[in-house]
Protein backbone atom coordinates (compact mmCIF):
# COMPACT_ATOMS: atom_id res chain seq x y z
CA UNK A 1 0.00 0.00 0.00
CA UNK A 2 2.75 2.43 0.99
CA UNK A 3 4.76 1.71 -2.16
CA UNK A 4 1.82 2.84 -4.31
CA UNK A 5 1.21 6.07 -2.39
CA UNK A 6 3.93 8.18 -4.09
CA UNK A 7 2.69 7.08 -7.53
CA UNK A 8 -0.88 7.92 -6.61
CA UNK A 9 0.01 11.36 -5.31
CA UNK A 10 2.19 12.06 -8.36
CA UNK A 11 -0.65 11.03 -10.68
CA UNK A 12 -3.07 13.25 -8.77
CA UNK A 13 -0.62 16.16 -8.97
CA UNK A 14 -0.23 15.62 -12.73
CA UNK A 15 -4.01 15.57 -13.17
CA UNK A 16 -4.34 18.77 -11.16
CA UNK A 17 -1.61 20.43 -13.22
CA UNK A 18 -3.26 19.36 -16.49
CA UNK A 19 -6.64 20.59 -15.28
CA UNK A 20 -5.14 23.91 -14.24
CA UNK A 21 -3.43 24.30 -17.60
CA UNK A 22 -6.68 23.48 -19.43
CA UNK A 23 -8.59 26.02 -17.31
CA UNK A 24 -5.99 28.66 -18.11
CA UNK A 25 -6.20 27.95 -21.85
CA UNK A 26 -10.01 28.12 -21.76
CA UNK A 27 -9.92 31.42 -19.90
CA UNK A 28 -7.43 32.91 -22.36
CA UNK A 29 -9.47 31.75 -25.34
CA UNK A 30 -12.63 33.09 -23.73
CA UNK A 31 -11.08 36.57 -23.55
CA UNK A 32 -10.01 36.40 -27.21
CA UNK A 33 -13.46 35.29 -28.31
CA UNK A 34 -15.02 38.13 -26.37
CA UNK A 35 -12.73 40.51 -28.22
CA UNK A 36 -13.81 38.87 -31.48
CA UNK A 37 -17.46 39.38 -30.62
CA UNK A 38 -16.82 43.05 -29.85
CA UNK A 39 -14.97 43.52 -33.13
CA UNK A 40 -17.83 41.91 -35.08
CA UNK A 41 -20.37 44.06 -33.19
CA UNK A 42 -18.79 47.19 -34.73
CA UNK A 43 -19.96 45.97 -38.13
CA UNK A 44 -22.94 43.63 -37.53
CA UNK A 45 -25.78 45.16 -35.53
CA UNK A 46 -28.56 43.41 -33.63
CA UNK A 47 -27.67 39.84 -34.60
CA UNK A 48 -25.88 38.65 -31.47
CA UNK A 49 -27.42 35.17 -31.44
CA UNK A 50 -26.56 34.74 -35.14
CA UNK A 51 -22.98 35.85 -34.51
CA UNK A 52 -22.63 33.55 -31.49
CA UNK A 53 -23.99 30.53 -33.36
CA UNK A 54 -21.68 31.23 -36.30
CA UNK A 55 -18.69 31.49 -33.94
CA UNK A 56 -19.74 28.18 -32.38
CA UNK A 57 -19.77 26.65 -35.86
CA UNK A 58 -16.21 27.84 -36.53
CA UNK A 59 -14.98 26.66 -33.12
CA UNK A 60 -16.42 23.22 -33.84
CA UNK A 61 -14.78 23.11 -37.27
CA UNK A 62 -18.17 22.79 -38.96
CA UNK A 63 -20.40 24.39 -41.58
CA UNK A 64 -23.54 26.49 -41.12
CA UNK A 65 -26.71 27.12 -43.11
CA UNK A 66 -28.05 30.66 -42.64
CA UNK A 67 -31.76 31.11 -43.34
CA UNK A 68 -32.98 34.68 -43.82
CA UNK A 69 -34.43 37.16 -46.27
CA UNK A 70 -32.06 39.39 -48.28
CA UNK A 71 -30.54 42.43 -46.65
CA UNK A 72 -29.82 41.01 -43.19
CA UNK A 73 -26.01 41.26 -43.46
CA UNK A 74 -25.33 37.58 -44.11
CA UNK A 75 -22.67 38.33 -46.74
CA UNK A 76 -21.19 41.08 -44.57
CA UNK A 77 -21.01 38.63 -41.66
CA UNK A 78 -18.90 36.21 -43.70
CA UNK A 79 -16.54 38.98 -44.82
CA UNK A 80 -16.25 40.22 -41.23
CA UNK A 81 -15.48 36.74 -39.91
CA UNK A 82 -12.77 36.37 -42.54
CA UNK A 83 -11.13 39.58 -41.30
CA UNK A 84 -11.50 38.84 -37.56
CA UNK A 85 -10.03 35.33 -37.87
CA UNK A 86 -7.55 36.05 -40.65
CA UNK A 87 -9.27 33.63 -43.03
CA UNK A 88 -9.19 33.75 -46.82
CA UNK A 89 -12.87 34.14 -47.73
CA UNK A 90 -14.62 33.83 -51.06
CA UNK A 91 -18.21 34.06 -52.23
CA UNK A 92 -20.14 32.06 -54.81
CA UNK A 93 -23.54 33.22 -56.05
CA UNK A 94 -25.46 30.03 -56.75
CA UNK A 95 -27.65 29.98 -59.87
CA UNK A 96 -29.28 27.15 -61.85
CA UNK A 97 -26.57 27.32 -64.54
CA UNK A 98 -23.68 27.13 -62.06
CA UNK A 99 -21.58 24.06 -62.85
CA UNK A 100 -19.47 21.95 -60.45
CA UNK A 101 -16.30 23.13 -62.20
CA UNK A 102 -17.27 26.73 -61.38
CA UNK A 103 -16.89 25.84 -57.69
CA UNK A 104 -14.25 23.11 -57.63
CA UNK A 105 -12.00 24.22 -60.46
CA UNK A 106 -10.94 22.54 -63.70
CA UNK A 107 -7.97 21.28 -65.66
CA UNK A 108 -6.88 23.17 -68.75
CA UNK A 109 -4.62 21.94 -71.53
CA UNK A 110 -1.48 24.02 -71.96
CA UNK A 111 1.26 23.83 -74.58
CA UNK A 112 4.82 25.00 -73.88
CA UNK A 113 7.36 26.43 -76.31
CA UNK A 114 8.59 22.96 -77.23
CA UNK A 115 5.07 21.86 -78.17
CA UNK A 116 4.60 19.62 -75.15
CA UNK A 117 1.07 19.55 -73.86
CA UNK A 118 0.21 19.19 -70.20
CA UNK A 119 -2.84 19.66 -68.03
CA UNK A 120 -2.77 22.33 -65.35
CA UNK A 121 -5.29 22.45 -62.52
CA UNK A 122 -6.90 25.85 -61.88
CA UNK A 123 -8.46 25.87 -58.40
CA UNK A 124 -12.01 27.13 -57.97
CA UNK A 125 -13.41 29.27 -55.15
CA UNK A 126 -13.83 26.21 -52.92
CA UNK A 127 -10.06 26.44 -52.35
CA UNK A 128 -10.51 29.01 -49.62
CA UNK A 129 -10.77 28.85 -45.85
CA UNK A 130 -14.21 30.43 -45.58
CA UNK A 131 -16.58 29.87 -48.50
CA UNK A 132 -19.94 31.60 -48.72
CA UNK A 133 -22.40 29.75 -50.96
CA UNK A 134 -25.10 32.37 -51.44
CA UNK A 135 -28.62 31.00 -52.07
CA UNK A 136 -27.33 27.45 -52.25
CA UNK A 137 -30.78 26.05 -53.03
CA UNK A 138 -30.70 27.85 -56.39
CA UNK A 139 -27.83 25.65 -57.57
CA UNK A 140 -28.67 22.43 -59.42
CA UNK A 141 -28.51 19.12 -57.51
CA UNK A 142 -25.36 18.23 -59.45
CA UNK A 143 -23.60 21.38 -58.27
CA UNK A 144 -24.93 20.99 -54.72
CA UNK A 145 -23.49 17.47 -54.57
CA UNK A 146 -20.11 18.83 -55.70
CA UNK A 147 -19.89 20.56 -52.33
CA UNK A 148 -20.70 17.36 -50.46
CA UNK A 149 -17.24 15.77 -50.66
CA UNK A 150 -15.61 19.13 -49.93
CA UNK A 151 -17.70 19.69 -46.81
CA UNK A 152 -17.29 16.18 -45.44
CA UNK A 153 -13.78 15.16 -46.51
CA UNK A 154 -12.05 18.54 -46.93
CA UNK A 155 -10.86 17.45 -50.36
CA UNK A 156 -12.20 17.39 -53.92
CA UNK A 157 -11.59 15.17 -56.93
CA UNK A 158 -11.21 16.73 -60.36
CA UNK A 159 -10.48 14.61 -63.45
CA UNK A 160 -9.72 11.68 -61.17
CA UNK A 161 -7.09 13.55 -59.14
CA UNK A 162 -7.69 14.38 -55.45
CA UNK A 163 -6.87 17.86 -54.20
CA UNK A 164 -6.73 18.75 -50.51
CA UNK A 165 -8.52 21.92 -49.41
CA UNK A 166 -6.91 24.57 -47.20
CA UNK A 167 -7.16 24.22 -43.43
CA UNK A 168 -9.31 25.29 -41.80
CA UNK A 169 -12.20 25.00 -44.26
CA UNK A 170 -15.73 26.19 -43.54
CA UNK A 171 -18.83 26.61 -45.69
CA UNK A 172 -21.42 29.20 -44.70
CA UNK A 173 -24.38 28.75 -47.05
CA UNK A 174 -27.47 30.94 -47.22
CA UNK A 175 -31.07 30.37 -48.22
CA UNK A 176 -33.95 32.77 -48.81
CA UNK A 177 -37.02 31.31 -47.03
CA UNK A 178 -39.52 33.39 -49.03
CA UNK A 179 -38.76 32.84 -52.70
CA UNK A 180 -38.93 29.14 -53.58
CA UNK A 181 -39.64 29.25 -57.33
CA UNK A 182 -36.81 27.78 -59.38
CA UNK A 183 -35.02 26.34 -56.35
CA UNK A 184 -33.75 22.84 -55.58
CA UNK A 185 -34.25 21.85 -51.93
CA UNK A 186 -31.11 20.40 -50.37
CA UNK A 187 -31.28 16.63 -49.85
CA UNK A 188 -31.26 15.26 -46.31
CA UNK A 189 -27.74 13.86 -46.70
CA UNK A 190 -26.32 17.30 -47.49
CA UNK A 191 -28.39 19.10 -44.84
CA UNK A 192 -26.93 16.75 -42.24
CA UNK A 193 -23.44 18.02 -43.12
CA UNK A 194 -24.31 21.44 -41.73
CA UNK A 195 -23.54 21.64 -38.03
CA UNK A 196 -26.18 24.34 -37.40
CA UNK A 197 -29.11 25.86 -39.23
CA UNK A 198 -29.08 29.49 -38.13
CA UNK A 199 -32.26 31.55 -38.32
CA UNK A 200 -31.36 35.14 -39.28
CA UNK A 201 -34.21 37.43 -38.23
CA UNK A 202 -34.80 41.17 -38.40
CA UNK A 203 -32.89 43.39 -35.94
CA UNK A 204 -34.79 45.19 -33.18
CA UNK A 205 -35.48 48.92 -33.48
CA UNK A 206 -32.45 50.03 -31.43
CA UNK A 207 -30.07 47.90 -33.49
CA UNK A 208 -31.63 49.10 -36.74
CA UNK A 209 -31.28 52.72 -35.62
CA UNK A 210 -27.60 52.09 -34.81
CA UNK A 211 -27.13 50.41 -38.17
CA UNK A 212 -28.67 53.36 -40.03
CA UNK A 213 -26.31 55.84 -38.38
CA UNK A 214 -23.23 53.65 -38.82
CA UNK A 215 -23.68 52.50 -42.44
CA UNK A 216 -24.90 55.64 -44.19
CA UNK A 217 -22.11 57.97 -43.15
CA UNK A 218 -18.91 58.91 -44.93
CA UNK A 219 -16.99 55.85 -43.64
CA UNK A 220 -17.95 52.32 -42.70
CA UNK A 221 -16.59 50.76 -39.54
CA UNK A 222 -13.91 48.12 -40.11
CA UNK A 223 -13.41 45.03 -37.92
CA UNK A 224 -10.02 44.21 -36.42
CA UNK A 225 -8.19 40.92 -36.67
CA UNK A 226 -8.29 39.13 -33.32
CA UNK A 227 -7.05 35.61 -34.12
CA UNK A 228 -5.11 34.06 -36.97
CA UNK A 229 -5.70 30.70 -38.64
CA UNK A 230 -3.26 28.85 -36.38
CA UNK A 231 -4.97 30.22 -33.27
CA UNK A 232 -8.37 29.26 -34.65
CA UNK A 233 -7.24 25.69 -35.31
CA UNK A 234 -5.72 25.56 -31.81
CA UNK A 235 -9.08 26.76 -30.43
CA UNK A 236 -10.86 23.99 -32.35
CA UNK A 237 -8.55 21.41 -30.76
CA UNK A 238 -9.10 22.95 -27.32
CA UNK A 239 -12.90 22.70 -27.67
CA UNK A 240 -12.59 18.94 -28.12
CA UNK A 241 -10.63 18.69 -24.85
CA UNK A 242 -13.32 20.37 -22.73
CA UNK A 243 -14.72 17.80 -20.26
CA UNK A 244 -18.43 16.99 -20.44
CA UNK A 245 -20.41 15.83 -17.41
CA UNK A 246 -22.58 12.74 -17.42
CA UNK A 247 -25.76 14.80 -16.97
CA UNK A 248 -25.01 16.71 -20.19
CA UNK A 249 -24.32 13.48 -22.10
CA UNK A 250 -27.61 12.00 -20.89
CA UNK A 251 -29.47 15.20 -21.84
CA UNK A 252 -28.06 15.03 -25.38
CA UNK A 253 -28.95 11.36 -25.79
CA UNK A 254 -32.45 11.89 -24.41
CA UNK A 255 -33.10 14.91 -26.63
CA UNK A 256 -31.95 13.25 -29.85
CA UNK A 257 -33.47 9.81 -29.25
CA UNK A 258 -36.81 11.27 -28.20
CA UNK A 259 -36.91 13.04 -31.56
CA UNK A 260 -37.03 9.74 -33.45
CA UNK A 261 -40.63 8.58 -33.98
CA UNK A 262 -39.75 4.89 -33.76
CA UNK A 263 -38.21 5.21 -30.27
CA UNK A 264 -39.88 8.29 -28.75
CA UNK A 265 -42.18 8.13 -25.74
CA UNK A 266 -43.66 11.55 -26.60
CA UNK A 267 -47.00 11.09 -28.42
CA UNK A 268 -46.62 14.22 -30.56
CA UNK A 269 -43.35 12.94 -32.01
CA UNK A 270 -44.82 9.62 -33.09
CA UNK A 271 -47.79 11.36 -34.68
CA UNK A 272 -46.11 14.34 -36.34
CA UNK A 273 -42.48 13.47 -37.16
CA UNK A 274 -41.71 11.62 -40.41
CA UNK A 275 -38.03 11.07 -39.62
CA UNK A 276 -35.85 12.16 -36.75
CA UNK A 277 -32.26 13.22 -36.10
CA UNK A 278 -29.37 10.81 -36.57
CA UNK A 279 -26.12 10.40 -34.63
CA UNK A 280 -24.61 13.52 -36.23
CA UNK A 281 -27.13 15.54 -34.22
CA UNK A 282 -25.70 14.12 -30.99
CA UNK A 283 -22.17 14.92 -32.13
CA UNK A 284 -23.20 18.46 -33.09
CA UNK A 285 -24.84 19.04 -29.70
CA UNK A 286 -21.79 17.71 -27.86
CA UNK A 287 -19.33 19.88 -29.77
CA UNK A 288 -21.63 22.90 -29.79
CA UNK A 289 -22.22 22.75 -26.04
CA UNK A 290 -18.45 22.62 -25.47
CA UNK A 291 -17.85 25.58 -27.78
CA UNK A 292 -20.64 27.62 -26.17
CA UNK A 293 -19.12 27.04 -22.74
CA UNK A 294 -15.66 28.08 -23.97
CA UNK A 295 -17.09 31.28 -25.49
CA UNK A 296 -18.42 32.21 -22.06
CA UNK A 297 -15.14 31.25 -20.36
CA UNK A 298 -16.69 28.29 -18.53
CA UNK A 299 -14.71 25.11 -17.92
CA UNK A 300 -17.52 22.68 -18.76
CA UNK A 301 -20.86 22.83 -20.60
CA UNK A 302 -24.24 22.56 -18.89
CA UNK A 303 -27.68 21.30 -19.88
CA UNK A 304 -28.58 24.93 -20.63
CA UNK A 305 -26.01 24.90 -23.44
CA UNK A 306 -27.69 21.84 -24.93
CA UNK A 307 -31.12 23.47 -24.73
CA UNK A 308 -29.81 26.70 -26.30
CA UNK A 309 -28.51 24.76 -29.33
CA UNK A 310 -31.41 22.30 -29.67
CA UNK A 311 -33.27 24.31 -32.34
CA UNK A 312 -30.31 25.14 -34.65
CA UNK A 313 -28.98 21.57 -34.37
CA UNK A 314 -32.25 19.65 -34.82
CA UNK A 315 -34.29 21.94 -37.08
CA UNK A 316 -32.75 20.70 -40.35
CA UNK A 317 -32.36 17.09 -39.19
CA UNK A 318 -36.07 16.38 -38.73
CA UNK A 319 -39.14 16.44 -40.98
CA UNK A 320 -42.85 16.62 -40.26
CA UNK A 321 -45.42 14.34 -41.83
CA UNK A 322 -47.74 15.77 -44.47
CA UNK A 323 -50.68 15.51 -42.07
CA UNK A 324 -48.80 17.45 -39.38
CA UNK A 325 -47.92 20.23 -41.83
CA UNK A 326 -51.54 20.37 -42.98
CA UNK A 327 -52.64 20.84 -39.37
CA UNK A 328 -50.24 23.77 -38.92
CA UNK A 329 -47.63 22.00 -36.78
CA UNK A 330 -44.06 23.33 -36.89
CA UNK A 331 -40.69 21.77 -36.14
CA UNK A 332 -39.97 24.51 -33.61
CA UNK A 333 -43.04 23.41 -31.64
CA UNK A 334 -41.91 19.77 -31.73
CA UNK A 335 -38.37 20.66 -30.63
CA UNK A 336 -39.75 22.80 -27.79
CA UNK A 337 -41.74 19.76 -26.66
CA UNK A 338 -38.54 17.68 -26.73
CA UNK A 339 -36.74 20.28 -24.60
CA UNK A 340 -39.50 20.62 -22.01
CA UNK A 341 -38.48 17.62 -19.81
CA UNK A 342 -34.90 18.95 -19.58
CA UNK A 343 -35.82 22.46 -18.43
TrEMBL record:
Domain ATPase AAA-3: 63-196
Keyword Transferase: no
Matching Gene3D superfamilies: Magnesium chelatase subunit I, C-Terminal domain (1.10.8.80), P-loop containing nucleotide triphosphate hydrolases (3.40.50.300)
Keywords: ATP-binding, Nucleotide-binding
Organism domain of life: Bacteria
Pfam families hit by this protein: AAA_3 (PF07726), AAA_lid_2 (PF17863)
SUPFAM superfamilies: P-loop containing nucleoside triphosphate hydrolases
InterPro entries per the UniProt record, alphabetical: ATPase_AAA-3 (IPR011703), CbbQ/NirQ/NorQ/GpvN (IPR050764), ChlI/MoxR_AAA_lid (IPR041628), P-loop_NTPase (IPR027417)
TM spans (from-to): none
Example GO molecular function: ATP hydrolysis activity
Stretches assigned to the ChlI/MoxR AAA lid domain: 271-336
Family label: Belongs to the MoxR family.
Protein name per the record: MoxR family ATPase
Taxonomic path: Bacteria, Pseudomonadati, Pseudomonadota, Alphaproteobacteria, Rhodospirillales
Amino acid sequence: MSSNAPYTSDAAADDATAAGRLAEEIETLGHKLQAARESIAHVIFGQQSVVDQTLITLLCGGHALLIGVPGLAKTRLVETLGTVFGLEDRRVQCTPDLMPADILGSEVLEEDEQGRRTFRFIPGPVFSQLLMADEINRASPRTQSALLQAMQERRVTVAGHPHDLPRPFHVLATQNPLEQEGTYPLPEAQLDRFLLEIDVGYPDIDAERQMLLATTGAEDAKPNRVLDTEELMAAQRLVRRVPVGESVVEAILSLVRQGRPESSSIPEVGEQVAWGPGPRASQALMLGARARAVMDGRLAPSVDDVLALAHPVLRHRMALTFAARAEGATLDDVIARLCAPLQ
